[in-house]
Specification:
single chain; about 160 residues; 5-stranded antiparallel sheet; alpha+beta; 3 helices; Cathepsin B, Chain A
């Protein structure tokens, strides 16, 4: 039973929810919104609310860092998994040749990785396995604490 109204659940899976350590998997609405969808998961809001503020075009790593600051989300950039918790990660896209793809990874010492790929359950898309078994490389990581506050919609 969700506490969110049905119209708010549009970006969430219709199948049983995938929730881990307070983060609920959401599905990216189009091929360019993986970063916005990950930001929505980190903030605990529907992706549509993030798209209202940040748009539906591809979002760079620098734009993500700016959004994290605007949302007052605690974060730190890292080259490796330095502490148990959640990370934004960019890896080669499995769907866009030569492109990068943003996903969330939960790391816990002794338990390994748990990948939240916003392409999971998206029709006709490849996605990284939940256990990270097929994730061979990634760019710089961004460690974060879930939460924050989405700023007002831009005019």
């Amino acid at each position: 039973m969700s506490l969110l109204p049905e119209r708010v659940l549009m970006g969430l899976s219709k199948s049983p929810d995938i929730i881990h350590k307070g983060i609920r998997l959401q599905i990216q609405p189009n091929k360019a919104t993986c970063t916005q969808t990950c930001l929505a998961m980190a903030l605990g809001v529907p992706v549509e609310m993030v798209l209202d503020v940040y748009g539906d075009k591809a979002m760079s790593s620098q734009a993500l860092l700016g959004a994290l600051r605007e949302c007052k989300t605690l974060y730190d950039r890292s080259d490796s998994f330095v502490a148990d918790g959640w990370y934004f990660a960019q890896a080669p896209s499995l769907n866009i040749r030569g492109g990068m793809h943003t996903m969330l990874i939960h790391f816990e010492l002794g338990e390994g990785l748990r990948v939240f790929d916003p392409n999971r359950r998206r029709k006709h898309c490849y996605y990284y396995a939940g256990d990270g078994g097929d994730l061979k490389t990634w760019g710089r990581l961004i460690y974060f604490r879930p939460g924050g506050e989405l700023p007002k919609k831009r005019q």
